[in-house]
Amino acid sequence: MFKLSRLADYAVVTMVELGRHVELVTAPALAQETGLPEPTVAKLLKVLLADGLLQSRRGARGGYELALPLKDISIARVIAAVDGPVMVTACVDGGDCGCTSGCSLKGKWDVVNDAIRATLEAISLADMTRGAPDGAGGLSAGVRRGPESAAPGAAVLGG
Amino acid sequence: MFKLSRLADYAVVTMVELGRHVELVTAPALAQETGLPEPTVAKLLKVLLADGLLQSRRGARGGYELALPLKDISIARVIAAVDGPVMVTACVDGGDCGCTSGCSLKGKWDVVNDAIRATLEAISLADMTRGAPDGAGGLSAGVRRGPESAAPGAAVLGG
DNA sequence: GCATAGAGTACCGCTCAGGTCCTGTTTTCG
DNA sequence: CGAAAACAGGACCTGAGCGGTACTCTATGC
After folding, report:
1. How confident is the model at residue B147 (pLDDT cuts 50, 70, 90)?
2. Of all helices (H) and strands (E), which one includes residue B49?
3. Is the pLDDT reported for residue A158 higher than 60?
4. Is residue B55 part of a domain?
5. What's the number of domains chain B is made of?
6. Which positions on strand D lie below 7 Å from a protein C-beta?
7. A134 part of contact set with chain B, CB < 8 Å
8. Which residue of B has its CA nearest to A103?
9. Which residue in B has a C-alpha nearest to residue A8's C-alpha?
10. Residues 57-96 of A with CB within 7 A of strand C
11. A62 touches strand D (CB under 7 A)
12. Mean pLDDT, rounded, for B41-64
């Protein structure tokens, strides 16, 4: 059903929560604030740390903090850290799909994949905190049916 | 890892293969041409038929055919038929997520979901057969970072 | 009337995400 | 110097859901 994993969902929530603090936050504290199970949060934080999205200090009085401001972290970045790179099918990026014989679509999924990836990279965690920037349709307004009608480089939204 | 199901992948392959025929095609024939297991193809065809994407004739000399031309069928349509509607998280469209207490992101995922959905609706099966419509970046060019700068209703791509 | 082929339903096994636990290491504080 | 706090890094278990299979029924054509 083309959904991202719950862990990725949690990761975004956790990151946003972390963004509300200026000092170090411990894993248990984050778990309590987000309402998520503590071991899961701890596991998540380790993954995000390993990916460079967080910084940590060990020992007593230790904790986690963001390595970047929320606005500089895209949804795609968080998802990639937790679930691995975005790949809509196994065929993407030269991956091996089972349909080697009659599969005429090899490589074609890259188009879909790139489109999805670009969409996710266009949304930052800061955008999530304030919801839709200019009304509900604000963000997705830039995405419209246009393979036939759109000229290359016709994007006029981003400055 | 944010991938669509294998069945959805298979469905697209099968639909495209169907698009290469003008007459009725049987499930076994499609299975052979695509290299996919026969029972799986048969199951898939029933689902696609139930969703109105295909037409069928029963009995001897029966088979399946497309109900619409390839260019009028979006990837999103096929995925929705096989996997259900696109929902990046359970929170989308008023769905119930577990994080009811401290979840400050309720409803915010709709933005992401709409963006993804729009992206998938912008790609037709015909686009898959000929690869990228206007170059690799052509499709995703419509998706750009613009929460601050974009005015509501600023979409100019779709005619 | 028989062969062909779709229609419908039910079932099963396997994979993997999600969750838990344990142990080690580092740092601070008394 | 020792104890406590908190991160680090595994291993392991479980359950849901995807993917695959089988069986039966119905409709059509020769």
Report:
1. very low
2. helix B38-50
3. no
4. yes
5. 1
6. 3-11, 18-22, 26-30
7. yes
8. B34
9. B1
10. 57-62
11. yes
12. 95
Could you tell me where the beta strands, DSSP code E, fall in chain B? 54-57, 63-66
Residues of A90-125 as b/e, b for ≥16 C-beta within 10 angstroms?
Answer: ebbeeeebebeeebebeebbbbbbbbbbbbbbbbbb
Strand partners, A66: A54
The answer to the question of residue B140 being in a domain is: no
Residue B56 CA to C8 C1' — how many Å?
Answer: 15
Could you tell me the residue range of the domain that residue B103 belongs to? 6-130
Angle at A145 between CA A143 and CA A147, to 5 degrees: 110
Q: Evaluate if the CB of A49 falls below 7 Å from strand D.
A: yes
> Is the model's pLDDT at B48 over the cut of 90?
yes
Q: Identify the top-confidence range among A141-150, B44-53, B113-122.
A: B44-53
Q: Provide the CATH number for the domain around residue B18.
A: 1.10.10.10
Residue A134 falls inside a structural domain: no
Chain-chain contact of A1 with B85 (C-beta, under 8 angstroms) = yes
pLDDT greater than 50 at residue B3: yes
The confidence score (pLDDT) of residue A28 equals 94
Instruction: Give the count of beta carbons closer than 10 Å to the beta carbon of residue B32.
Output: 14
Average pLDDT score over residue span B99-118: 72
Confirm whether any atom of chain D, the nucleic acid strand, is less than 7 Å from CB of B59.
yes
Is a pLDDT exceeding 90 seen at residue A66? yes
Residue B143 in any domain: the answer is: no
